[in-house]
Specification:
2 domains, 17% strand, disordered N terminus, 9 helices, 384 residues, alpha+beta
């Protein structure tokens, strides 16, 4: 045994220092909070699975609750989970049309729209707690799929949930549930990870804002409706400009500022540069389909490489079958041929086509949202 092995053995055999009292207390509080969330989810999952359920008063904890939100006419269902009293302690869980357990929360980082294209589930802590509660409640995922699976043609909805003096809107938009909150200044916030960059203008907010305004008009002075009391700071500011700006007003006055770019007489006037059209920041159908095709290509390429490095029994025949399926899917557009170089037909800055310009082929690596497939080596055409 050499000196390095002896050193590592000695380090491994040294006794570890016991955790401090504060660390032990934090672990106990976290475990107790997780158990409270499981206790709140168990009767909710039993009702969702069609089983008899009951809730004891002793199991209720302050700020911890779970409730099922349903659409009045369709089968759209989700579970709104609260694990604390803060805004970041809220989450909404549901089952996609393909049976995956999805979640929208402040702690999540995965785009549920991409996960809903397959049967994969989210990997946040709320999904882990829900899976633990399913075991305790005796409810299988098959039972939830039969009774809670979101239909493909789900109808959009916006349902308010009252928690004390706060109102949280449960919104369904494009098969994705999310929670939308409004401040006293009518500033919206969406917690879906796919809407983080534009959480005040996403589709969830566009659906919730009219319903929120209608509720606000119906209960103008009701302190229990989740709005500001009469005579407080919110009412004093009614005659002042709103603390936020709309999408079409945020660039007001920019056309009067001098530009730093040299312009020709044939260019568009500077006064018209800021007049942009309203646009949807969510990916279009073509972009989603292209992303799904790349994920399938990466997945099948990983399957091919795994079989190529496996046993020799029937390897040649099975690899040929995989290649035949890949080529058939590539012909109809379900997969992409990675041997072809990638090139944009037009310049992204000036819009000119690449006709007559020299192009050089350079290697590149393409990463997909697939959780297990490795990166794909591609070739890219660039201007020489």
């Amino acid at each position: 045994m050499d000196d390095d092995d002896t050193l590592f053995r000695d380090l491994d055999e040294q006794p570890q220092a016991p955790p401090s009292r504060r660390a032990r207390r934090g672990a106990q509080v976290a475990a107790a909070g997780q158990d409270a969330v499981v206790d709140a989810l168990v009767p909710c999952l039993q009702r969702a699975g069609g089983l008899p359920a009951s809730t004891t008063l002793a199991s209720r904890r302050a700020g911890v609750s779970a409730a099922i939100v349903t659409h009045p006419t369709s089968r759209s269902r989700c579970i709104v989970l609260r694990s604390g009293t803060g805004k970041t302690d809220n989450a909404v869980l549901w089952l996609s049309s393909r049976g995956g357990v999805l979640c929208s929360c402040f702690l999540g980082t995965q785009n549920a729209l991409l996960l809903s294209a397959s049967s994969r589930s989210s990997t946040c802590k709320h999904v882990s707690i829900m899976e633990k509660a399913m075991v305790v409640a005796g409810v299988s995922q098959t039972m939830l799929v039969d009774r809670m699976r979101l239909p493909v043609d789900a109808t959009e909805l916006a349902v308010p949930r009252q928690y004390g003096s706060a109102v949280i809107w449960v919104v369904l938009y494009r098969s994705i549930f999310s929670l939308v909150t409004f401040t006293a200044g009518n500033v919206a916030s969406c917690i879906a990870p796919g809407c983080r960059r534009f959480r005040g203008r996403c589709g969830h907010v566009k659906i919730a804002r009219p319903a929120h305004q209608a509720r606000k008009d119906a209960f103008p002075n009701d302190p229990t409706a989740g709005f500001t009391r009469k005579g407080t700071r919110g009412d004093k500011a009614l005659g002042q400009p709103r603390p936020f700006v709309d999408n079409e007003h945020e660039d007001s006055g920019i056309e009067k500022l001098p530009g730093d770019t040299g312009r020709a007489k044939s260019d568009v006037k500077e006064a018209k540069l800021s007049k942009r059209l309203p646009r949807n920041m969510l990916p279009c159908k073509g972009e989603i389909d292209q992303g799904d095709a790349w994920m399938r290509s990466a997945d099948w390429r990983a399957m091919y490489l795994k079989r190529a490095g496996g046993t020799e029994e029937n390897k040649t025949e099975e690899l040929k079958k995989i290649i035949d399926v890949y080529r058939a899917c590539a012909r109809v557009g379900h997969m992409l041929d990675t041997s072809l170089p990638l090139v944009e037909p037009c310049c992204g800055s000036c819009g000119c086509r690449w006709d007559g310009q020299g192009l050089a082929k350079e290697p590149g690596i393409l990463y997909t949202h697939h959780p297990t497939a490795p990166a794909v080596k591609v070739s890219v055409h660039c201007v020489e």
